[in-house]
Design brief:
four-stranded mixed sheet, 38% helix, 10 strands, 8 helices, alpha+beta
Protein backbone atom coordinates (compact mmCIF):
# COMPACT_ATOMS: atom_id res chain seq x y z
CA UNK A 1 0.00 0.00 0.00
CA UNK A 2 1.10 3.56 -0.66
CA UNK A 3 1.37 6.05 2.23
CA UNK A 4 -1.97 7.56 3.18
CA UNK A 5 -2.92 10.83 4.85
CA UNK A 6 -2.72 10.65 8.63
CA UNK A 7 -5.98 9.86 10.31
CA UNK A 8 -7.73 12.71 12.08
CA UNK A 9 -10.87 11.77 14.05
CA UNK A 10 -12.75 14.94 13.07
CA UNK A 11 -12.19 14.20 9.38
CA UNK A 12 -13.31 10.59 9.54
CA UNK A 13 -16.94 9.73 8.96
CA UNK A 14 -18.88 7.35 11.14
CA UNK A 15 -21.05 4.42 10.21
CA UNK A 16 -24.09 6.38 11.41
CA UNK A 17 -23.64 9.26 8.95
CA UNK A 18 -25.44 8.62 5.66
CA UNK A 19 -25.94 5.03 6.79
CA UNK A 20 -27.22 2.61 4.13
CA UNK A 21 -30.94 2.11 4.58
CA UNK A 22 -31.60 -0.80 2.25
CA UNK A 23 -33.19 -4.11 3.12
CA UNK A 24 -29.89 -5.98 3.25
CA UNK A 25 -28.72 -8.03 6.24
CA UNK A 26 -27.97 -6.40 9.58
CA UNK A 27 -25.31 -7.52 12.05
CA UNK A 28 -24.70 -6.80 15.73
CA UNK A 29 -21.48 -5.03 16.65
CA UNK A 30 -19.54 -7.03 19.26
CA UNK A 31 -18.46 -3.76 20.92
CA UNK A 32 -21.49 -1.46 20.90
CA UNK A 33 -24.15 -4.22 20.58
CA UNK A 34 -25.93 -2.08 17.98
CA UNK A 35 -27.52 -3.75 14.97
CA UNK A 36 -26.36 -2.04 11.78
CA UNK A 37 -26.49 -2.74 8.05
CA UNK A 38 -23.75 -5.15 7.05
CA UNK A 39 -22.42 -2.48 4.66
CA UNK A 40 -21.59 -0.31 7.69
CA UNK A 41 -19.53 -2.98 9.45
CA UNK A 42 -16.31 -4.97 9.21
CA UNK A 43 -16.24 -8.76 9.52
CA UNK A 44 -13.46 -10.49 11.45
CA UNK A 45 -12.60 -14.17 11.49
CA UNK A 46 -10.43 -16.30 13.80
CA UNK A 47 -7.42 -17.81 12.07
CA UNK A 48 -6.37 -21.43 12.81
CA UNK A 49 -3.65 -20.10 15.13
CA UNK A 50 -6.14 -18.10 17.19
CA UNK A 51 -5.68 -14.61 15.72
CA UNK A 52 -8.52 -12.23 14.86
CA UNK A 53 -7.98 -10.92 11.34
CA UNK A 54 -10.13 -8.60 9.23
CA UNK A 55 -12.22 -9.91 6.35
CA UNK A 56 -13.42 -6.68 4.74
CA UNK A 57 -14.66 -8.56 1.68
CA UNK A 58 -16.77 -10.88 3.88
CA UNK A 59 -15.65 -13.96 1.97
CA UNK A 60 -13.35 -15.88 4.32
CA UNK A 61 -14.75 -19.16 5.67
CA UNK A 62 -15.71 -19.66 9.28
CA UNK A 63 -17.71 -17.87 11.90
CA UNK A 64 -17.54 -14.10 11.74
CA UNK A 65 -17.53 -11.35 14.37
CA UNK A 66 -18.76 -7.94 13.27
CA UNK A 67 -17.52 -4.50 14.34
CA UNK A 68 -18.83 -1.07 13.36
CA UNK A 69 -16.71 0.28 10.52
CA UNK A 70 -14.65 2.94 12.21
CA UNK A 71 -11.18 3.02 13.71
CA UNK A 72 -12.24 3.91 17.24
CA UNK A 73 -14.61 0.95 17.56
CA UNK A 74 -12.06 -1.54 16.19
CA UNK A 75 -9.45 -0.21 18.62
CA UNK A 76 -11.97 -0.54 21.46
CA UNK A 77 -12.60 -4.15 20.45
CA UNK A 78 -8.87 -4.78 20.84
CA UNK A 79 -8.67 -2.99 24.19
CA UNK A 80 -11.68 -4.77 25.69
CA UNK A 81 -10.88 -8.29 24.49
CA UNK A 82 -14.11 -8.38 22.50
CA UNK A 83 -12.88 -11.00 20.03
CA UNK A 84 -12.33 -13.65 22.70
CA UNK A 85 -15.88 -13.10 23.93
CA UNK A 86 -17.30 -13.15 20.41
CA UNK A 87 -15.57 -16.39 19.40
CA UNK A 88 -15.98 -17.92 22.91
CA UNK A 89 -12.31 -18.90 22.95
CA UNK A 90 -9.10 -16.99 23.58
CA UNK A 91 -8.48 -14.90 20.45
CA UNK A 92 -5.66 -12.40 20.12
CA UNK A 93 -6.07 -9.45 17.72
CA UNK A 94 -3.54 -9.21 14.91
CA UNK A 95 -0.93 -6.49 15.40
CA UNK A 96 -2.03 -3.17 13.91
CA UNK A 97 -5.53 -4.47 13.38
CA UNK A 98 -7.17 -1.13 12.49
CA UNK A 99 -4.39 -0.39 10.01
CA UNK A 100 -4.93 -3.81 8.43
CA UNK A 101 -8.60 -2.94 7.98
CA UNK A 102 -7.70 0.41 6.39
CA UNK A 103 -5.37 -1.33 3.95
CA UNK A 104 -8.05 -3.84 2.94
CA UNK A 105 -10.64 -1.10 2.46
CA UNK A 106 -8.28 1.07 0.42
CA UNK A 107 -7.46 -1.92 -1.76
CA UNK A 108 -11.18 -2.51 -2.25
CA UNK A 109 -11.62 1.07 -3.46
CA UNK A 110 -8.60 0.77 -5.76
CA UNK A 111 -9.93 -2.49 -7.16
CA UNK A 112 -13.33 -0.98 -7.94
CA UNK A 113 -11.69 1.96 -9.70
CA UNK A 114 -9.64 -0.47 -11.74
CA UNK A 115 -12.83 -2.26 -12.75
CA UNK A 116 -14.35 1.06 -13.78
CA UNK A 117 -11.31 1.81 -15.94
CA UNK A 118 -11.59 -1.55 -17.69
CA UNK A 119 -15.33 -1.01 -18.20
CA UNK A 120 -14.77 2.41 -19.75
CA UNK A 121 -16.66 4.05 -16.89
CA UNK A 122 -13.84 6.31 -15.65
CA UNK A 123 -12.63 9.68 -16.93
CA UNK A 124 -9.06 10.80 -16.15
CA UNK A 125 -7.39 14.19 -16.28
CA UNK A 126 -8.30 17.77 -15.38
CA UNK A 127 -9.49 18.88 -18.83
CA UNK A 128 -11.20 15.58 -19.60
CA UNK A 129 -13.13 15.64 -16.29
CA UNK A 130 -14.26 19.24 -16.81
CA UNK A 131 -15.33 18.50 -20.38
CA UNK A 132 -17.32 15.47 -19.22
CA UNK A 133 -19.05 17.52 -16.51
CA UNK A 134 -20.33 20.00 -19.07
CA UNK A 135 -22.38 17.24 -20.67
CA UNK A 136 -23.16 14.64 -17.99
CA UNK A 137 -23.53 14.31 -14.23
CA UNK A 138 -20.74 12.45 -12.45
CA UNK A 139 -21.29 9.40 -10.31
CA UNK A 140 -18.29 10.30 -8.16
CA UNK A 141 -15.57 12.93 -8.46
CA UNK A 142 -12.12 11.67 -7.49
CA UNK A 143 -9.55 14.17 -6.24
CA UNK A 144 -6.13 13.07 -4.99
CA UNK A 145 -5.51 13.83 -1.32
CA UNK A 146 -2.17 15.39 -2.29
CA UNK A 147 -3.47 17.35 -5.29
CA UNK A 148 -3.48 21.13 -5.56
CA UNK A 149 -6.25 23.20 -4.01
CA UNK A 150 -6.67 25.33 -7.10
CA UNK A 151 -7.24 22.38 -9.44
CA UNK A 152 -9.72 20.54 -7.27
CA UNK A 153 -11.66 23.76 -6.57
CA UNK A 154 -12.07 24.38 -10.30
CA UNK A 155 -13.42 20.86 -10.78
CA UNK A 156 -15.66 20.93 -7.73
CA UNK A 157 -17.27 24.31 -8.30
CA UNK A 158 -17.97 23.57 -11.95
CA UNK A 159 -19.66 20.32 -10.90
CA UNK A 160 -21.57 22.05 -8.11
CA UNK A 161 -22.79 24.81 -10.43
CA UNK A 162 -24.19 22.21 -12.80
CA UNK A 163 -25.36 19.42 -10.49
CA UNK A 164 -25.91 20.94 -7.02
CA UNK A 165 -24.44 18.26 -4.75
CA UNK A 166 -21.73 16.24 -6.54
CA UNK A 167 -20.12 13.50 -4.50
CA UNK A 168 -16.34 13.81 -4.07
CA UNK A 169 -13.81 11.30 -2.75
CA UNK A 170 -10.52 12.78 -1.56
CA UNK A 171 -9.03 10.15 0.74
CA UNK A 172 -6.92 8.35 -1.87
CA UNK A 173 -3.48 9.66 -2.79
CA UNK A 174 -2.34 10.40 -6.33
CA UNK A 175 -0.20 7.25 -6.19
CA UNK A 176 -3.18 5.13 -5.12
CA UNK A 177 -5.36 6.59 -7.87
CA UNK A 178 -2.50 5.94 -10.28
CA UNK A 179 -2.34 2.32 -9.12
CA UNK A 180 -6.06 1.98 -9.80
CA UNK A 181 -5.87 3.48 -13.27
CA UNK A 182 -2.57 2.00 -14.46
CA UNK A 183 -0.58 5.22 -14.25
CA UNK A 184 2.15 6.56 -12.01
CA UNK A 185 -0.04 9.30 -10.55
CA UNK A 186 -3.60 10.56 -11.09
CA UNK A 187 -4.86 13.84 -9.60
CA UNK A 188 -8.33 14.32 -11.13
CA UNK A 189 -10.77 11.63 -12.24
CA UNK A 190 -14.43 10.73 -12.10
CA UNK A 191 -16.64 7.69 -12.19
CA UNK A 192 -19.64 7.72 -14.48
CA UNK A 193 -23.03 7.08 -12.92
CA UNK A 194 -23.87 3.40 -12.61
CA UNK A 195 -23.45 0.28 -10.53
CA UNK A 196 -19.66 0.62 -10.17
CA UNK A 197 -20.06 4.16 -8.88
CA UNK A 198 -22.62 2.92 -6.36
CA UNK A 199 -20.32 0.10 -5.25
CA UNK A 200 -17.47 2.57 -4.87
CA UNK A 201 -19.69 4.80 -2.71
CA UNK A 202 -20.22 1.95 -0.25
CA UNK A 203 -16.54 0.98 -0.20
CA UNK A 204 -15.40 4.59 0.19
CA UNK A 205 -17.84 5.17 3.04
CA UNK A 206 -16.23 2.36 5.01
CA UNK A 207 -12.71 3.57 4.19
CA UNK A 208 -13.46 7.00 5.63
CA UNK A 209 -14.17 5.41 8.98
CA UNK A 210 -10.44 4.62 9.13
CA UNK A 211 -8.82 7.35 7.06
CA UNK A 212 -9.26 11.10 6.92
CA UNK A 213 -11.91 12.32 4.47
CA UNK A 214 -10.35 15.67 3.50
CA UNK A 215 -13.18 16.64 1.18
CA UNK A 216 -15.20 17.34 4.33
CA UNK A 217 -13.01 20.44 4.84
CA UNK A 218 -11.97 21.29 1.30
CA UNK A 219 -15.25 22.85 0.24
CA UNK A 220 -17.06 23.53 3.52
CA UNK A 221 -18.30 27.07 3.95
CA UNK A 222 -17.20 28.12 0.47
CA UNK A 223 -19.68 29.57 -2.03
CA UNK A 224 -19.12 30.01 -5.76
Amino acid sequence: MMPSPRNEPDQRLTAREDMPTGDGPHRQCIVTRESLPQEAMIRFVRSPDGIAVPDASGKLPGRGAWVTANRETVEKAVEKGAFSRAFKVKTAPADGLADMVETQLANRCIGLLGMARKAGAAILGFDQVRNYLRGSAPGYLLEAADGSEDGRNKVHFLAKALYDTPRTAGALTSAELGMAFGRERVIHALLQEGSLSDSFATAYKRLTGFRAAPEQDWFSGRIR
